[in-house]
Design brief:
The structure is a single chain. By secondary structure, the chain is α/β, with parallel strands linked by helices. It has a single domain, classed as Glycerol-3-phosphate (1)-acyltransferase, CATH 3.40.1130.10. The chain has 11 helices and 9 strands. Strands 1, 2, 3, 4, 5, 6, 7, 8 and 9 form a 9-stranded mixed β-sheet that branches. It is globular and about 55 Å long. The two termini are 21 Å apart.
Length: 317
């Protein structure tokens, strides 16, 4: 089922109008921003509820960027999600990630649909790397408007250097120890909030998709799947904030953005099928050397997201 508002969209803006629009939202968000608030991530503040002040301004700004045809498709699968929530089942969303305005895009578009979907928006908690908190106040000013569970991704940890000195090793191990404390605290919060009926959102790719990067998905995705009853894949076409090497240098554009929610994916049967496929392919030497089950599984999820975006169907799971 497609959006009931497929033709809703913003008027085209001149560059001068775009500059004014960006200046306006920056001023509005600055007015509601408290510098230093939860900026440094610790085990005590891994769950950071969304800051309501300024959120409507951000979504109004986002509405000016979304061109005609922007919409959420697969609403019948969100109706199924509401049924799963009513039955007490735990839910994980697995969306594609294009840019740092994906979240207000999805929230703005879904908020314009039937009010019953607001119950979903109110429960969303995004699993986010601490870089979105700690890299700059400007970035956090945007990301803090939505609830997040902050973690330290494994790939963000420093790797041992060749001929590492004792001091360098000590510093690296100290970082690893603190990251482990943060991640343990995040897992405890995930269990608590999941039990309270919240929906978690995990980007399998980790960061934004970049044309000049390897875009290797995050293998820990498979571990998260084990903690939930039902998952929903969400593909994304279009992007109002194309990625650059430095997030601070990114500039918004207008674009047609389409989210497509896939059918429910019961996680345990899915993981069992992936395990059987993995073992069969490994036995026939079809699995590349060094590819473990976790990476195999998240690679499959990315392939399913691609199918969902390009064909409208999730494909065989």
């Amino acid at each position: 089922m497609k959006s009931s508002r497929p033709d809703a969209g913003a008027a085209l803006l001149s560059q001068a109008d775009m500059n004014l629009l960006v200046l306006d939202i920056a001023q509005k968000l600055t007015a509601s921003y408290q510098p230093g608030r939860d900026r440094v991530v610790t085990p005590e503040n891994v769950y950071q509820p969304g800051v309501v002040a300024g959120r409507s301004d951000l979504e109004t700004f986002q509405g000016r960027l979304l061109l005609a045809g922007s919409r959420v498709e697969g609403l019948e699968n969100l109706d199924h999600c509401l049924g799963e929530l009513a039955a007490g089942r735990s839910i994980l969303f697995l969306p594609e990630h294009r840019g740092n305005l994906d979240v207000p895009s999805f929230n703005h578009l879904l908020r314009g649909e039937h009010p019953r979907y607001h119950a979903i928006l109110e429960r969303l908690i995004y699993i986010a790397g601490r870089k979105l908190n700690e890299s700059s106040d400007f970035i956090k000013m945007f990301t803090e408007k939505y609830s997040r569970l902050v973690i330290v991704p494994r790939r963000d940890l420093p790797k041992p250097k060749p001929n590492e000195t004792a001091e360098e090793q000590e510093a690296r191990l100290r970082i690893e120890k603190e990251a482990a404390r943060i991640n343990r605290a995040a897992f405890r919060e995930l269990l608590r909030l999941k039990k309270a009926g919240h929906i978690f959102v995990l980007f399998p790719l980790g960061g934004r998709w970049k044309p000049d990067a390897d875009n290797i998905p995050v293998k820990e995705t498979a571990s998260y799947l084990e903690s939930f009853d039902t998952a929903y894949l969400i593909s994304m076409e279009g992007n109002t904030l194309p990625p650059l090497a430095r997030m601070e240098d990114e500039r918004p554009i207008q674009d047609r953005v389409v989210f497509r929610v896939g059918p429910p994916l019961p996680t345990k049967p899915f993981l069992e099928r992936q395990r059987a496929r993995f073992e069969a392919e490994r036995a026939s030497a079809a699995v590349p050397p060094g590819l473990d089950f976790e990476q195999y599984t998240v690679n499959r999820i990315m392939a399913l997201l691609h199918d969902l975006r390009t064909t409208g169907c999730q494909g065989g799971v």
